[in-house]
Specification:
Elements lengths: L2 H56 L10 H13 L7 E5 L5 E4 L8 H5 L5 E7 L4 E11 L2 E10 L1 H36 L1 H14 L14 H57 L4 H33 L5 E4 H11 L2 H4 L2 E6 L3 E4 L1 H18 L5 E8 L4 E6 L22 H6 L6 H11 L5 E5 L3 E8 L3
Parallel strand pairs: 7-9
Antiparallel strand pairs: 1-2, 1-5, 3-4, 4-5, 6-8, 9-10, 10-12, 11-12
Helix pairs in contact: 1-2, 1-4, 5-6, 6-7, 7-12, 8-10, 10-12
């Protein structure tokens, strides 16, 4: 059962109980009040009749020492009419509780008469074939005789009003329940709307639509739940995208690795087979051996780079204070105009950085090496070190082929090369910048690339300065 239906049914049950109990109490309260008023009037009327009977007895001629039964019946007949449009219902009994006079239509039994005692008054509510009556009984002292006067007062209207009250209230309750059902249907639908939207969102996400979000329609607890759900969905979508990117990257890596491995192995196997199956002259043998050696060295360099990337990904390094000038002295020894055929210019400020010196040297060596591969012989390469307010910036600028803007985000992927033919001709495997990115990641830094095709590139990074 849906929660909206549960809420609707619960509300209707509570409303029905509340309206039923309150209606029963209200109608009965009005009935009891009216009935009490009628009983009071019947008791007062009985007292008035008793007084009138006693007064009438005083006018009896003095020749009677004891009130005769005929006189009692005569007085009772006068009391029945009493100047009213309708006759009263009375009954008079003697000392032995034998009936002396009874009005037509007086249907009450003698139970109250048998219970009455001198100087007492009794009443009860009785039901007859004509309706409901208040039956009263009182003792009268008349000329030495004890007589008993009974009256019946019609109170059927009170009971009719109670039945009508229950009927009207029942109709009103049904109408209010129907109206309440309609209103609560809309209220429950409004209150449970966030839950329905969340359910829809979970189904959409379960179906693979991770970009779908539940719409927040309130600012209460359910609204906060929707907000938290969307935050969870954002985190989930981000994690899924990362997993998909990692999976895609792994597939690209395996494809590129297989391709890069296949190229040198094909050359090595081909030239080795030529040396094995053909008798070559010395020049061709040396040329074949040189090809095998060159491709073997490229495989060796690629394996070392892959190993370095794996080590760098672990990120377990100890950073220490290092002089920037020490790093630049190392680069000057590594890259000279004579051994690379380039024009190297070193421009740096003195400063102390926080780094793992050997890893940072690896990064800079790779950047300078890539600049050499991307440039023609004799080109100018500038290596800079600049002190900033919050760090120390390294830059390597060249006048090479440049990197298209759409390719700049991909160059840190393993085996990715902007110009593959140029890189392979210079023993490149597309792993240098991937290694640099991993090393800088554990230094809480990243590569910044400024490049324009045909005009060169400027690649740098910033480290913390002491």
């Amino acid at each position: 059962m849906k929660i909206s239906l549960k809420l609707l049914m619960s509300t209707i049950v509570v409303m029905a109980l509340a309206l039923g109990l309150s209606g029963f109490y209200f109608v009965n309260y009005v009935f009891e009040t009216s009935l009490h008023r009628e009983v009071g009037q019947a008791s007062d009327e009985s007292s008035i009749l008793s007084f009138a009977f006693e007064t009438a007895v005083l006018n009896v001629p003095a020749r009677y020492s004891v009130l005769p039964d005929s006189t009692v019946e005569e007085i009772a007949s006068k009391l029945e009419r009493g100047g009213r449009s309708t006759e009263r219902l009375i009954r008079i009994a003697d000392e032995q509780k034998e009936i002396l006079h009874i009005s037509a239509g007086f249907e009450a039994d003698k139970r109250l008469l048998h219970q009455i005692q001198p100087d007492t008054k009794l009443y009860r509510i009785i039901k007859t074939t004509d309706g409901y009556y208040v039956h009263t009984c009182a003792a009268i002292n008349a000329l030495g005789r004890i007589l008993y006067l009974e009256t019946m007062k019609d109170v059927s209207d009170v009971f009719t009003e109670r039945a009508m009250g229950f009927s009207v209230y029942r109709q009103m309750t049904i109408a209010m329940l129907l109206l309440g059902t309609v209103i609560m249907h809309f209220i429950s639908a409004l209150l449970t709307k966030p839950i329905r939207l969340l359910t829809k969102a979970t189904k959409r996400m379960a179906g693979g639509d991770y970009a779908y979000r539940a719409r927040q329609v309130s600012h209460d607890e359910l609204g906060q739940l929707t907000c938290d759900f969307n935050k969870m969905a954002n985190a989930l979508e981000k994690n899924i995208e990362m997993l998909e990117e990692e999976n895609e990257a792994k597939e690209e890596f395996m494809g590129a690795f297989a391709h890069e491995l296949k190229t040198p192995l094909t050359a090595i196997i081909g030239y080795a087979d030529m040396l094995r199956s053909h008798k070559l002259d010395e020049e061709k043998s040396i040329l074949s051996a040189n090809y095998i050696y060159t491709e073997g060295k490229r495989l060796e360099a690629m394996s070392f780079r892959l190993l370095d990337i794996i080590v760098a990904k672990k990120g377990d390094v100890q950073l220490s204070e290092v002089s920037a000038s020490e790093i630049f002295v190392y680069l000057k020894e590594m890259f000279t105009d004579e051994n690379r055929g380039m024009q190297f210019h070193y421009q740096y400020d003195n400063g102390i950085i926080l780094a793992e010196v050997n890893l940072i040297k690896t990064v800079l060596v790779n950047l300078v090496d890539n600049a050499c591969k991307a440039s023609e012989l004799g080109s100018q390469i500038i290596i800079r070190g600049i002190c900033l307010e919050d760090g120390y910036q390294f830059e390597v600028e060249d006048e090479g082929i440049g990197i298209p803007h759409k390719e700049q985000r991909k160059i840190t992927k393993a085996f990715y090369m902007v110009d593959k033919s140029r890189s392979r001709s210079r023993n490149g495997a597309g792993l240098g910048l991937a290694l640099c990115a991993e090393i800088l990641r554990i230094h809480h830094s990243e590569l910044t690339i400024q490049s324009e095709p045909g005009k060169g590139s400027c690649i740098g990074f910033v480290l913390d300065r002491v």
